[in-house]
Amino acid sequence: MGDQSLIFKIADDPNELQQVNQLNYKTFVNEIPQHEENEEKLLVDKFHDENTYIIAKNHEEIVGMIALRAKRPFSLDHKLQDLDQYIPSGSIPCEVRLLSVKDEYRSTRVFYGLCKRLVQLCLEKGYDLALISGTVRQLKLYKRIGFIPFASLVGDENARFQPMYITKASFEKSTKAFQKLMEKASVRIENNAAHSFLPGPVPVHPAVKRALERTSISHRSASFIQEAEEIKLSLCRLTHANRVEIVVGTGTLTNDMAAQQLKQFAGEGLILSNGEFGSRLIDHAKRSGLSFRILEKQWGEDVSLKEIESALKLYSPDWLWTVHCETSTGYLYDLEAILGLSLKYQVELCVDACSSVGIVPVDLKEIYLATTVSGKGLGSYPGLGIVFHRDEFFSHPTIPRYLDLGLYAEKGSIPFTHSSNLITALKEALKNVDLHLNQRLASTVRESLREWGIEIMGDNSYSSGIITIKVPPGLSSRQIGDRCKEIGVLLSYESDYLLNRNWVQVALMGYHNEEKVLKAVASIKDIIAPVKEIGYI
């Protein structure tokens, strides 16, 4: 039966959707006489365009499916008066429909696999309640999973259904087998996968995990203040920066803080962009009311020093803001050369270094402002933002308190509540930063992918932390990413900007074992290379 060949994924090509309609007909016309027969032997669901179909495939044959949708009205809205009276208030519901498994696969792992993928999708989408019309023939099974019956039966005498719903809480109270399913479907599975190539959260060293679990201490205690100062010294040594502040937040927060400092300049600025995160800097600037010009290129297209110098001559800006590593592609700006131009034209340089600090060498000594985070190249947990600054800053009454870099500087980075657990974890993570290992490992991975005929963006001038794979035409980055996830290799692919361009990424950030990395990369090749040859999954 080829059970080992089963994959579970979201249906996303015409052949799969045609098979969905065939299986729908077989189940809900032939087996459960809910609809009329037709010559085409196809049943297109009335919500077909709104459904997300989770399917089980044995090679090219769909052997099971289940559909998910979240747009009201649901099918049960048409069968019951005031559906909302039956379900807990404040819920974020979806409906699950069209569960079907071919006869010969009903005693295999197909049903389990469909449920696993369904739970994972619900968690990703934020739904906390799922509705079904459960066939009366399978009520025992549904109840075992954790579905709760409500209202009376619906349907006609030939096809009777029981309205039911399931919540996360009721699912967790179900049998041990399905409790295990819930655990596997939760976000925690990603941190325990065979190998994670995500740009965040990144794999962390075991010592970092232990550090995070230590007993919390007060952020006002002498020991916490001392530990924070030690980390700041380590960060300055790593980057050659003059000063640094550590805040509770993300890279988005640190860039908002940078924007507030740039707002203090009387003149306008210049922003460089050739990818998603350059575009985000533009958005930060707009939201902060900055006056600025833009030097924008296509994604991954080189922004030459000649073009930057021309823009500096033409616009005479007070400040220049750029990312260092453009995470959406891996493009690495020549920070040293850009700094040289900034000094030549007396322009203050501000850098988003969220995906470069801890990955590639950086020298921030003469850079006005630079931002990064704990949960990427530094190899710790997300939750701490880091702002490097050349000059001494003081609190400014026009800047919101949480965004006021000067206030943090005056208070030793602790004007507000801080997390001792995140600080201790970051301290431990800094011990494991190895720029030479990053470069060597990335070079090996790039060379291997090229040897296997897999197209990647850029060359060795790109960041050693991000390797962007261009999925061959006719294939889907979601298919590749889903298939890799099935075998425990987590790629970055679910961001809209990657899905829209049909890219997947290998992020070499955080703690990586070289042997495990190369083994995981080989498994990516085993998925992409054969698919590239035959043109489908």
Automatic annotation (TrEMBL):
This is Septum site-determining protein. One of its GO terms (molecular function) is L-serine-pyruvate transaminase activity. The keyword Iron-sulfur does not apply. It comes from the Bacteria. Keywords: Pyridoxal phosphate. Residues 6-169 form the N-acetyltransferase domain. Its cofactor is pyridoxal 5'-phosphate. Pfam families: Aminotran_5, FeeM. One of its GO terms (biological process) is glycine biosynthetic process, by transamination of glyoxylate. The keyword Oxidoreductase does not apply.
